[in-house]
Design a protein that fits this description.
- This protein has two domains: 293 residues, Vaccinia Virus protein VP39 (Rossmann fold), CATH 3.40.50.150; 218 residues, no CATH class.
- The chain is built from 20 helices and 14 strands.
- The strands form four sheets. Strands 1, 2, 3, 4, 5, 8, 9 and 10 form an eight-stranded mixed β-sheet that branches.
- α1 crosses α20 and α9 crosses α10.
Length: 520
């Protein structure tokens, strides 16, 4: 198997995809020998999944007992100590960068897992907050913010250090599309990163650092067009995941680097696939209700709270309008039909059928005997009303409403509302329904905050998406368990690379290595 080192690994989306690639004999093509992650709960998720992969014939019953809450993680690892020790050796809880472990320590750790192997692959992407459009907008006007001193801007230097020290045959580097427009001073970061990836040794020298193989370089390829980026044209840098069978409009910069001493290499590109809808992926999961926050919550209290609004002005605002009567009818019917579902608010594990219409073999695992990480958050009653209204509107119109479409009684008490009603802007789609018949919008770490951008399309559930629903839209398998509190689980899912997309990329990388003469 070809060795993989995954840095800034998160919960392991890239690794999962690469680990799913098989060679011409049907055996795993790649071996994830080291995954590096600094966040505690993401690291625990990563280690648990690495443990899972140490059972090529299928995970033991104890793994599923752990998923069902019948066995602690410590007991699981103790019962399978050999596999647990191997998993622990392949996962490193460490921070890379100026305030993290030294480059010397990283060099030693990678040397220890590579041994004498010269054909291997580096994957991963530096944390993206400093490059993202949202992150940059939050920093505008801040007197205490200096982009040139933000260490996140240059965490990719740690990537360069590994390239220059260990000369992988190929690499995959992922980041947000905001990287294409990001600047530090007068420097366009994407162009600078391209230049640096082509010549890691020269780039390190500029930073006052050296690498063991400073003369080695790379050609940087697009994964969607059969070309390199040598002429400065950035077309083809962004992968639009929804074009490749991912049920999510996730747009990311993903680059393929191939060592420049390998001649005659012509990487394949991703092959477009039919569009996958939200409903086909999450529609079969057990229905749940949202919780009531700031009030005593119970199934009855939730039901009574919603049904009490059947005669409200907002539910009847369009009753006498030709273009609104249908919506009011649907609102009132939904309010009257509201019933707490059998699974109530769900849990870290609930029994129930989890069959997916789409890619059933990829997602589903009958050994689980239920669904993991499938529980709901609590919301203020006013937000529940907005969620139900928005879901009904989307059901009728096939699109999520902006604030201009909300009845006055449902407008949030926020300083930005007046401007949004007048001029539109980002706040105007403050409540966003994920449309059943289309791919979802991008699942990002902000889903951990309030859920307003991730409203379930079913009005009778009246809630935001669960971690498991978000994970399915990110194409994580159902037996992929996310560790930690719910907030951390959402962040892990939102920051990950979709494994099913990573698998497609892994196949391209495998083909590159075969062209380079590496045996499958």
């Amino acid at each position: 198997m070809i060795k993989i080192v995954d840095i800034f690994a998160g919960p392991g989306g890239l690794s999962e995809g690469f680990a799913s690639v098989t060679d011409s004999h049907g055996k795993p093509a790649f071996n994830i020998v080291l995954s590096v992650e600094m966040e505690r709960f993401a690291f625990e998720t990563l280690k648990l999944r690495t443990f899972f992969r140490h059972f090529p014939e299928g995970a033991p019953l104890n793994y599923y007992r752990h998923l069902r809450g019948e066995m602690t993680r410590d007991a699981l690892y103790e019962a399978h100590s050999v596999e647990a020790e191997k998993a622990a050796a392949q996962c490193w809880h460490a921070r890379l960068g100026p305030d993290g472990v030294s480059a010397h320590h990283v060099r030693q750790r990678i040397d220890s897992v590579l041994g004498k192997d010269e054909s291997w692959v580096l994957i991963g992407g530096p944390p993206c907050q400093a490059y993202s459009l949202a992150g940059r907008s939050r920093n505008v006007g801040r007197d205490d913010y200096d982009a040139e001193k933000d260490v996140r801007q240059k965490l990719y230097v740690e990537y360069l250090q590994i390239l220059a020290d260990h000369r992988p045959t190929a690499f995959i580097m992922e980041n947000v599309k905001g990287l294409l427009s990001a600047t530090v001073g007068d420097i366009r970061m994407f162009q600078q990163i391209l230049n640096d990836l082509r010549n890691p040794g020269i780039a390190l020298a500029r930073e006052g650092r050296i690498g063991r193989h400073s003369s080695s370089g790379y050609r940087i390829y697009s994964l969607v067009q059969q070309r390199t980026f040598d002429n400065g044209d950035l077309e083809g840098a962004i992968i639009r995941a929804e074009k490749y069978g991912i049920p999510q409009a996730r747009h990311r910069v993903i680059l393929l680097g191939v060592r420049d001493n390998l001649v005659g290499i012509i990487p394949r590109t991703l092959r477009p696939q039919p569009q996958v809808t939200v409903a086909s992926v999450i529609g079969s999961l057990p229905p749940l209700r949202s919780g009531l926050s700031r009030k005593t919550d119970s199934a009855k209290a939730w039901k009574d709270c919603l049904r009490s609004e059947v005669n409200s002005r907002w539910a009847n605002a369009g009753t006498h309008k030709a273009d609104g009567a249908e919506l009011s009818d649907l609102l009132r019917k939904s309010l009257l039909d509201i019933e707490p579902p059998k699974a109530d608010r769900g849990d870290e594990f609930i029994k129930g059928d989890s069959t997916s219409e789409h890619e059933m073999k990829w997602y589903c695992d009958s050994k689980i005997d239920g669904v993991c990480n499938h529980s709901t958050r609590g919301h203020m009653d006013s937000d529940l009303f907005r969620y139900l209204y928005a879901a009904c509107y989307a059901k009728l119109h096939g699109k999520s409403p902006s604030l201009q479409h909300f009845p006055t009684d449902l407008l949030p008490d926020h300083d930005s509302v007046e401007d949004a009603l007048k001029d539109g802007g980002n706040f105007s789609d403050r409540f966003r329904v994920q449309i059943a018949s289309r791919p979802s919008t991008t699942i990002v770490s902000h889903i951990s905050k309030d859920g307003h951008y991730y409203i379930h399309y079913d009005p009778l559930q009246c809630r935001s998406l669960t971690v498991r629903e978000a994970a399915r839209l990110q194409t994580f398998r159902d037996n992929y368990f996310f560790c930690g509190p719910m907030t951390s689980q959402y962040v892990q899912v939102g920051n990950a690379v979709p494994p099913l997309l990573a698998k497609q990329i892994g196949k391209i990388v495998l083909d590159v290595l075969l062209q380079a003469g590496v045996n499958d």
